[in-house]
Amino acid sequence: MLRVSATYPNLPGSHFDGDDYVGRHAPFARGLLEPLGLRALRITIGTAALDGAPPPYWALSELIFDDRDSFDRAMDICGAALMGDAPRYTNVDPVLQISSLIDA
């Protein structure tokens, strides 16, 4: 399984609307990506660092696909729509990472 992580760093001057991300953007993304091979979408919204300071990341999303080809095809088809929606909930560019999903 392939995991694509999108982390949204909490940078000085940045903002992130977690309610919009979870309530509107995630269903939008799921609707576009599930027919194209999305197996799961997991979202974590940052609340605080361990010492109680603001969270180092606003959010972390994980998109699970069977393989890289499935993900690449999905992004070719709807990646522009997904990234174009980002200004509605944040002014931060996500950091993306491709990983292998391993159950231990």
From TrEMBL:
InterPro entries: Dimeric_a/b-barrel (IPR011008), EthD_dom (IPR009799). It comes from the Bacteria. GO terms for molecular function: oxidoreductase activity. NCBIfam families: EthD family reductase. This is EthD family reductase.
